[in-house]
Amino acid sequence: EMCIRDRQWEPDTARRGAWMLIFARNHQHAISVIELKLFCNAKFVSDGGGLAVKLVPNLADDLGVEEGQEQMLFRAANGGDRTRDKLIHLCGALIEATRIVSPTAKRIQSWFDTGAVIMEEVVLEEGLHEGPGPHPDPDPRISDLDRELATSLRMLKFVRNFLESLKGPGQYSFLSMLGYMQKACKALVRIGSIDRTEKLGQKAHRMAKEMTGWLCRVTRDLFFFQECPGEQHRTYGEQHAAFVTDSSSAVFDELQVLLECQMRVLVEQALFSGVREMNMSEKAWAGLKATVKKGTIISWLRDMPEIANKEMSVNERKEAFLESEQMPWVDKLRKKCPGQYETTGKVLQLFYGLGSEDVLSRIAQIKYCCSPVQKVRLWSDAILMAIKLIMDAMPPGTEPLGGPDLPQVALFLLCHSGEDIFVHAKLAQLFTLDYAGYDEEILALQEGGLYREVHDQYTYNAERRSIYPQMMLNYLVEGCEIIADSKFARRDRRTAVQEAWAVSEDSINSTGAEPEDALSVLVHQAARDAADRELSEQAALTLKEKQQDQRKHAATNLLPFDVWGK
Q1: Residue 45, strand partner residues
Q2: Which sign, positive or negative, has the C-alpha torsion 139, 145, 147, 152?
Q3: What is the DSSP string of 65-94?
Q4: Model-wide pTM > 0.70
Q5: For an engineered disulfide with 32, which of 22, 215, 246, 495 has Cβ 3.0 to 4.6 Å away?
């Protein structure tokens, strides 16, 4: 039997430490004490057909006072559900504790929150150094951030080599998995639409989401590997090529410190950082030469008139959009804190002023990320951080903000964020799988990819915390659409939100209730869960039933012929 004791869980005082006490059955005194700052992660592993929890030690540079610390394994006494539940709770508690007190876990979190953007720029401009020895002309930023980035660059090369060793799916087995996805990326930017109501738009979504499905599959397998893949690992059957990388076993040990959402970022960087056409960073895109600029996926989307027009409309209208809209959570904040948040500027004080860690700065970083999963994670984390800051500002005991408040807060943040975010929202949506798992059926996605139950790959412990980042992304996209379709001069009392969704006041008041404000309608619409989504998507599926049979036969032949340069 075990328990975890701590002095204080708040991050600023967690340096006091956290320990795990191990007791023999029916004994009052602990027989062992484990200092958790020496460990950086906990994960499930298979143990003789049963389930076990592995406690992963810090990296060598962060071991602390007890160098040479070995990993620890906690096995279930029996295979019953009760014991299994205890292991699940133990694993969750260990992850929470080590994230706060472990120096390795803290460094990894810091890098994935901020340093990853710098690394993406270095990789894009310099490329991965493939030869032996040091880089012949290293970027000075690598020298400045060597401790934070050197390990990450080794991990990135490991993952890229692993993708190179896998065969591409179906008829593309003559390519590596990495080569197949890179060709698919280049083919994607030749499609002229991403509108899912059009045939070309459906093809674009199918190609993008099949790539995402394979990225999810590789991420899940790399995360749960218990041993380093060998030169002939046969993970998905026959290999494309031998898996060879420098110090593979040592790098594999370093990969054990990553959470699944961090592993996903690494896998996506291995693909998107290596193809200039698919670099999704606005900053990197702006600094490239004109000949390369036009080939990026950013310019590809902005060349579509419907996307360009809506992004321009969002930029022009978002500041004035909230003037006629009510924010119930703002009213609640002002009621609970009289005299403190009477102006919008004072409310905004909650969300900026902390440098790169504040809410609005996180949203601004969305444009600098080179991979879709990072854009989704930053947006969902910004909303959750904003909710926490709002609650912290109100007196203790205040009823917490609930699910219906999320789209309201999201719209407020969107209206006060930087410009040109719509393209990045649509780009993230293009590559993001539906949170309810309907994309696999609706788009007839190719077998082999992982298209469901991937919430934990988007943000830390999403499933356990009941967080669905993909759904929060919908708030961003739908919020942009509403603002773009809003009108400054309104002919009647219908609000911008009601007009955007064609919601009449008669239908709103059909039950005899008082007229709802626009944000209440927004909450009502955004809160429609999987049942409503399933109904509409099943209707679309019925209308296109005959076409789906053809797509299933063509699922392995999605790349246009001219992608090979012929």
Answers
A1: 52
A2: negative
A3: TSTTPPPEEEE-SSS-HHHHHHHHHHHHHH
A4: yes
A5: 22
